[in-house]
Amino acid sequence: MTGYVIYSKNKKKQVPLGVVSEEYDCKAVIENIPTRIKEYLVPIEDKRFFEHRGIDIKGISRALLENFKAGKIVQGGSTITQQLARNLLKDNSKTISRKVRETIKAIQIEDQYSKDEILNLYFNNVYFGKNLRGIRVAGLYYFGKETNKLSHSELLYLLTILRGPNYYVKRPEIAIERYKYISNTLYDSKLISKNRNKKNLKSKICLDNNQLKCIKEIAIPYITQTVDHKEKKINSTIDNRY
């Protein structure tokens, strides 16, 4: 696949956004998913991840008890594997049948993959808001960086918004509080040092709206897979001014 030139939608002048010379996947290369973010995910989302086989009865019971005490939902009972199953099924309906399918899928995933493979699958399929799915495209969109170039605080930010990306991205003050909670939790779990925790709490997260870079890295290769291979010039609806 060579010679494709993608042009922006600009009424005054057509601007080439880029040339695609080869086809590639938008998912992160497994080796580029930092080990530490996989380690950090467990105490935040699923403390018994390495003990259960997809479903955590103890976790569900604990969540029900905490929610009853609080009089509202303060904890979820879904394991990391169940969350992955939900993302793969692409069904967020709050029905019993969906929950049953999710449970069956989670058990199947545990039977087919190792724990590390499950974490890799999770980070390549999890939703990060803004129609972004997978850690690679999220890193490019929010910080303009490939996954293996993300800083410690940037990785923590991505963990911060996992539970409700659209909610936290629109509410930076609340996101900061959750960011601090996650950093303190990692310190309490002895996954980061006291000094690292202090640095995290002082860090200022600078979100860049890297839509254009994201388009160049992700959308352009996707476009070339959906057009007539005989075409050499492709006019897109992407506006390079934004």
UniProtKB/TrEMBL annotation:
Pathway: Cell wall biogenesis; peptidoglycan biosynthesis. One of its GO terms (cellular component) is outer membrane-bounded periplasmic space. It comes from the Bacteria. Keywords: Cell membrane, Cell shape, Cell wall biogenesis/degradation, Glycosyltransferase, Membrane, Peptidoglycan synthesis, Transferase. Residues 24-185 form the Glycosyl transferase family domain. It is found in: Cell membrane. Transmembrane segments: none annotated. GO terms for molecular function: peptidoglycan glycosyltransferase activity; serine-type D-Ala-D-Ala carboxypeptidase activity. This is Penicillin-binding protein 1A/penicillin-binding protein 2A. The lineage of its organism: Bacteria, Pseudomonadati, Bacteroidota, Flavobacteriia, Flavobacteriales.
